[in-house]
Design a protein that fits this description.
This protein is an alpha+beta fold. Helix content is 37%, strand content 22%. The protein has a single domain, classed as Peroxisomal Thiolase, Chain A, domain 1 (3-Layer(aba) Sandwich). The chain is built from ten helices and eight strands.
Amino acid sequence: MTRWLAIEGVGFWASGLPGFDALRGFLRDGSRPEAPPLRPAPALLPPNERRRAPDTVLLALEAAQAACAMAGRDPAAVPSVFASCHGDLAITDHLCATLASVPEQVSPIRFHNSVHNAAAGYWTIGTGCHAAATALSAHAGSFAQGLVEAAAQVLVEGTEVLLVGYDAAAPGPLAEVSPSEGLLALALLLAPCDAAAGGHRRLRMALEAGGAPPPEGPLAQRLGRNAMAPALPLAAALARDAGGGLLLHAAPGSRLRLELA
């Protein structure tokens, strides 16, 4: 197991559950907001940018802002790790269809939003952050591998690190090979325990051989078809203020063992 880390802030956004408070309510008594928004609207972006930005960017930024706000940390000073299984498959599908039919009409704006670090780029520009930003993908193990990367940075550099795991729906032919439904993001503001104020949840972890059980329960029934669903057990434990152990899928034949206190 690694040394303990402090979880200073949590951000969450999902289709039908727009925020960490909505997640808490759903897990407490099954309640859901009436007429929830279809997509996030992060205050970090001006209205024109919000209209043009893809769902993955809005989703990641909304969760990231919430985690930083809960932690009371300045986003401009926090290194970050953005983890997504697929990036923005809606844009990828659109670009592929355009290239196959009218290649001269490829949109430069859609093209620059298609790169895997688009959300990290919007975040660092919008917050004016000059700290390191990492974007990674490890298919179904993306959240677990992002958590390992963020934890390593916290422990080696001795600084707080923002982790954002997010994925959106897969359209068209891509849905057959990379299935994903709806929107889901979980963000954590991690810090060294000795640098954090008291009262925070603590987390430690270890990579090990073996498989992890698929997410289960009412939250998994609602959001389990999103590519970021392997993060749901941790999201549920944090929302319930539960302690104990968790297993997250990290790679074929590998899992991440978590202990919450």
